[in-house]
Amino acid sequence: MHYPHLFRSLELKHGFLKNRIVMGSMHTNLEEQKKGFDKLAVFYKERAQAGVGLIVTGGISPNDEGVLAPGQAQMRLPEDVANHRLVTSAVHQVGGKICMQLLHAGRYGFHQNIVAPSALQASINRYAPRELTPEEIEKQIDDFVHSARLAQQAGYDGIEIMGSEGYLINQFIVLRTNQRTDAWGGDYINRCRFALEIIRRIRSVVSRDFIVIYRLSMLDLVEGGSSREEVLSLAQWVEQAGVDIVNTGIGWHEARVPTIAAMVPRGAFSQITKIVKQVVNIPVMTSNRINMPATAEQIILEDKADLISMARPFLADSEWVEKARNGQDNSINTCIACNQACLDKVFVGEVASCLVNPRAARETQLNFQLAKQQKKILVVGGGVAGMAFAKYAAQRGHKVCLVEKQAQLGGQLNYAKQIPGKSEFNETLRYFATQLAQLKVELQLNTDAQSIDLRSYDEIILATGVEARIPAIKGIEQAIQSKKAVTYAQLLAGEVKLANSLAIIGAGGIGIDVAVYACEANMQDENPYAQYYQNWGIDINLHHRAGMMLPQHNTVKRHIYLLQRKAEVIGKNLAKTTGWIHKSVLKKQGVKQISGVNYKKIDDQGLHIEQGGETQVLAVEQIVLCAGQTSNNFKQLVQEKTGRAENIHLIGGAFEAKELDAEAAIYQAALLAQKI
């Protein structure tokens, strides 16, 4: 058997799980859509059918005060029970098990009705909470118990109590947010009373075989968080209160430490799970940045955890478990931890999906059945849009030929994977290469499409991508010829070396990526885990309170300028969940960021700029052009050669040149393949 430790069953107090793999909690926002529970049922059923041992739903609130945003899902009314039965029935039909997560946002709720143990406003929220009275605390506990009882009526196999990430229960536990002096505050045991009462009272009203999971904040990563002794004590107390499984919670949402982004090494937090596992007699679950079977297997083998929780990897590939069980690792569509199509969407009220798998949360609307008529299709361009279209079209039974003028597939992904924190794009390239081979897509590399008989194809897909735009600056032609000015593509492809002083023209996503690359190039440690803990001040063994210690970030000797024309804060439009990480790196490395710039000229002295009516010369060795892209589009030529227009389709950058957007390119490719 492949991965024998991962696929070994696990005995619980009253029951068992068929393997060690848990689909962890992540809200999709389908819960709030019209007919959303019908879609959610199909979404979870696919994952259960592939063999996941246990599913935990996205956070469901016990009352109005506990929702993260107005209108979000609750479990408190008979109609809620009816909606959730659609989900549990679908999962049980295929032999799966599913628990509902109970989440009370506390002061993290983005609405005016939020409550907390103390009236202390969160740094990430514009709303201030109202302090709960003792009577209201009892009411909150009763609401948790009521929701748990309804969850069992709805057919759930258990619940997960969200006690981490800085939500309400976590807010009671730490002095940072609990300054009460009554029976619900003060000493640590009093601050834990809220959590323990919820567990005890829920345990008293549900059946013995009803699974109760507690998500324990093992590393708060905020000042005033829990100490090692406190975390270990609470782990033992929740076990005594009746919990069946302890799950790993890492970092509050207001912590300024990346915990799930791609730059976090795989399985980086399993060590703290192992420490907690050593003091309890119930199964312990680890989480965060585990996306491939080998990593999961090693964690179980080393006895760091009993269960592996993954959320986003099941967005990326609903068949993850089945592929792992069969040793088909190369066929796994790996989560790249980008957050672009999932968490970034959820936080603005949109439905989550996945950059590398646009079917995620669209299972009822995006499918690739065999076409009624097999077509001969030419795809020009082997970037992400071309590869995606070729895969989906071949799934439908079409005969697909993919032509790429370079010696390798990947297009702009070959540049993106060079950026620190984006190496997971290598997995995307591996996945598509595997899929194209399995689906027998004909590949012609090092081939100019214009040398092919285009008239022999029923459909032609132009996925020719983009190239770096050359801005109109006096002296730029000479600078390009002398290699003083280079494009981001030339730099990331290794065609030119990184200079010790550089100015980056353009501070969009690509410009910031290049700045991060310049900051961290040649700084990779042999031990990426040690480097990550050191750079972000993480004490993985929790000898410092909350797991926080002083960061020790190595600084580069390069002089880097990041410039943009717009007179606004640089990085303003970066993704909500990851943009702050890049900005933090640039700040730590002393990158000089200048906005509202007018580029005057380039000469031997350097780059001449004007800002606020004043001119200056940036005496840099290298100027990197990140000023947008233009489409590589020869549709007119193809029309002339074929004498047709209706069978020529543009996707990806060839369709629209803008900030590199792999999510949009793959989704557009999937939509076209579905209907062609």
Automatic annotation (TrEMBL):
Residues 6-328 form the NADH:flavin oxidoreductase/NADH oxidase N-terminal domain. Its EC number is 1.3.1.34. Residues 376-633 form the FAD/NAD(P)-binding domain. SUPFAM superfamilies: FAD/NAD(P)-binding domain (SSF51905), FMN-linked oxidoreductases (SSF51395), Nucleotide-binding domain (SSF51971). Keywords: Flavoprotein, FMN, Iron, Iron-sulfur, Metal-binding, Oxidoreductase. It comes from the Bacteria. Its cofactor is [4Fe-4S] cluster; FMN. It is an enzyme of class 1 (oxidoreductase). GO terms for molecular function: 2,4-dienoyl-CoA reductase (NADPH) activity. PANTHER family: 2,4-DIENOYL-COA REDUCTASE, 2,4-DIENOYL-COA REDUCTASE [(2E)-ENOYL-COA-PRODUCING]. In the N-terminal section; belongs to the NADH:flavin oxidoreductase/NADH oxidase family. This is NADPH-dependent 2,4-dienoyl-CoA reductase. It comes from Catenovulum sediminis.
